[in-house]
Amino acid sequence: MPRHVYLFSGASAVGKTSVLKTLLPLLEEGGAAPCVCKIDCLKTGDGALFQRMGLPCVTGLSGDICPDHFLVSNLPELWDWADRLGRDTLVIETAGLCHRCSPATEHMTAGCVLDCTASCRAPGQLGPMLTQADFVVLTKIDMVSQAELEIISWQIRQLNPGAALFPVDGLVGYGTDLLARWLLERPARGSFEGDILRHTMPSGVCSYCVGEQRVGSAFQQGVVGKITFEEAERCSL
């Protein structure tokens, strides 16, 4: 059983892999023995990148399943895999498709990676992956002004006052040394058995989840959400 599980979640293309590329060698230098799990949907070449770094890596492709649900369903197997390898640190990079999902559990150290160039409003558009995170990594800081960075940092602190913030430039590695030091100082877990999610997953299985392709109310079953138009219609009068 690994002593540490570090989760890196965030929207697609925010720079999660770039951060890990510079972070993982620093974790090794600090005495950790990491292995990596890369979760994606249809295709990824990142597993080969981590293997070229000399790190054991397993790739999980979720296909038609929500990648965060897929990850949670495979956590016990990932713990066993790290244990068989004799690795004390499991680093997980998620696919980052759904802002409402969060596969973070109570016993892991959970992080959210946020692209500073996305929007000053971007933090408010994220759900549990940000509000339940232990740390937040701010990427592409070389592409925004100091004022913009401070606004984004302020918004994150309003949403998650307890999270540690780490501005980084993943391409050159600036800031990842502080993140590595912080992660290495996290207390080790004796076991992950009995671990629980920090937040519920979105509810549902609807007819489209199980393969329905026809459009129309007659073909919709299960948990289905509908837009309320009354307020919009009142405003248009």
Could you characterize what this model shows?
The N and C termini lie far apart (62 Å). 31% of the residues lie in helices and 16% in strands. It has a 7-stranded parallel sheet with strand order 3-2-4-1-5-6-7, sandwiched between helices. The longest helix is centred in the N-terminal third of the chain and has 19 residues, at 67-85. With 237 residues, it is α/β, with parallel strands linked by helices. The protein has 7 helices and 7 strands. Helix 1 crosses helix 6. The chain folds into 2 domains: 4-184, P-loop containing nucleotide triphosphate hydrolases (Rossmann fold), CATH 3.40.50; 203-237, no CATH class. The relative contact order is 0.17.
**How would you state the average pLDDT, rounded?**
88
Tally of distinct domains:
2
Radius of gyration based on Cα positions: 19 Å
CATH class of the largest domain: Alpha Beta
Any idea what the CATH superfamily of the largest domain is called? P-loop containing nucleotide triphosphate hydrolases
Cα distance, first to last residue? 62 Å
